[in-house]
């Protein structure tokens, strides 16, 4: 029964992610020029909320779907996600995700951290500093937008998952 | 409880490990995709959503254009308003400068005219006319504080205007030569015969007590005679316009037009009475 609920909630979460990803890649990017990366937000939510076995697979699925809409490598992004699951597992007790301000702050810090790890890996892989430099300002602004929207998206995900987890 | 948690953690780590192995295998097998390369799915997605993106981009562009045009128009309107006020200000300044130039010219004439009169002078501006008596009474902006006293003579570059009849600290009232109550002893330039001038209308004066035997001609200039101890001798008053004589009468009827155009005077010179300074 619990497993069924998890599958159902996971499915709905993935659908929500896909909806946001399509929206971001078609409409939002045309209007603002910003390509919003919701994959990190969903991965953070799964990392922060779940300590169950399903979390690594959800991260994998989210990153694979995201790779369809971007040039990012799903395997590399998943490794970053797994690293974050481990980090969050260690600092779980100190992280307070309740309250809008806390959510915004934690999401923003994790976003920056995620991007930093990504930049480091990509720098070592491609040694293309110019491309990364151009990405920094873009990612910074998109992370601000996503961080603000995190409050609503987290609330939506909370409603989806309820108390079953 | 602790055993259960440890088991759960162990399970989680196993799953993390499994996914990690899968990722490393994928990286080893396919490598990292170049940053500029998009997936086939993305290219397909772009094809499908292209019209939507294009419409959105176009709408955004239209909105931006509209906004820019609107702000441009607002700017143009503001600039126009600013320029209009500047033009109005400049017109006002030009008018003021033109007025000053005219005033300067008038004052120069006035000073040149009064140079020959050896009296202390005060320049005054006309501030009002007595509306009930057309050009017969006027008020100037100089009074006792500036040395103006009763019977001070008032002239301008064209000729005699009148005399002060009433004065306060900073203002004085003048009775012009058009005032029938104001009598001025005059003489004619060529014949040197005398008469008494008084106003009869807003542009005409009558000279009384002119002997019938005096050969007075039209256009002869009328001057102050200096008698009466008020008006200095030799100030131009006007010119004779007509002479009516009857051989049975002792005197002639002489009419003269003042040189001063009372409808246009703005500044005057008040000749101060010398006795007041002694």
Topology diagram in text:
The complex is a heterodimer of chains A (about 160) and B (about 280).
Chain A: H1 2-32, H2 38-49, H3 54-69, H4 74-91, H5 100-126, H6 129-161
Helix pairs in contact in A: 1-3, 2-3, 2-4, 3-4, 5-6
Chain B: H1 2-30, H2 40-114, E1 121-129, E2 137-140, E3 153-155, E4 160-167, E5 172-176, E6 184-188, E7 194-199, E8 205-211, E9 221-224, E10 236-244, E11 251-258, E12 267-271
Annotation, overall tally of beta strands of chain B: 12
- Count of the separate structural domains of chain B: 3
Low-confidence stretches of chain A are none
Radius of gyration of chain A (CA) equals: 15 Å
Question: What is the chain-wise order of helices and strands of chain A?
Answer: HHHHHH
Largest sheet of chain B: 6 strands, antiparallel, barrel
Question: What percent of the residues of chain A sit in helical stretches (DSSP H or I)?
Answer: over 70%
Strand content of chain A: under 5%
User: Helical segment tally of chain B?
Assistant: 2
End-to-end C-alpha gap of chain A: 12 Å
Structural class of chain B: alpha+beta
Termini Cα gap of chain B:
126 Å
Q: Radius of gyration of chain B from the CA trace? A: 48 Å
Q: Kindly state the mean pLDDT of chain B as a whole number?
A: 84
Describe the protein's architecture and organization.
- The complex is a heterodimer of chains A (165) and B (278).
- Chain A is mostly helical and 165 residues long.
- Chain A has one domain (2-161).
- Chain A is built from six helices and no strands.
- Chain A has helices spanning 2-32, 38-49, 54-69, 74-91, 100-126, 129-161.
- In chain A, α2 (38-49) packs antiparallel against α3 and α5 runs antiparallel to α6 (129-161).
- The longest helix of chain A is centred in the C-terminal third of the chain and has 33 residues, at 129-161.
- The termini of chain A are close together.
- By secondary structure, chain B is an alpha+beta fold.
- Chain B has three domains: 38-115; 121-178 and 266-277, Beta Barrel (Thrombin, subunit H); 184-258, Thrombin, subunit H, CATH 2.40.10.350.
- Chain B is built from two helices and twelve strands, in the order ααββββββββββββ.
- A six-stranded antiparallel β-barrel of chain B has the order 1-2-5-4-3-12. A six-stranded antiparallel β-barrel of chain B has the order 6-7-8-11-10-9.
- Chain B has helices at 2-30, 40-114; strands spanning 121-129, 137-140, 153-155, 160-167, 172-176, 184-188, 194-199, 205-211, 221-224, 236-244, 251-258, 267-271.
- The radius of gyration of chain B is 48 Å and the shape is rod-shaped.
- In chain B, a hairpin with a 4-residue loop joins β4 (160-167) and β5 (172-176).
- The interface between A and B is medium-sized, with 36 and 34 residues.
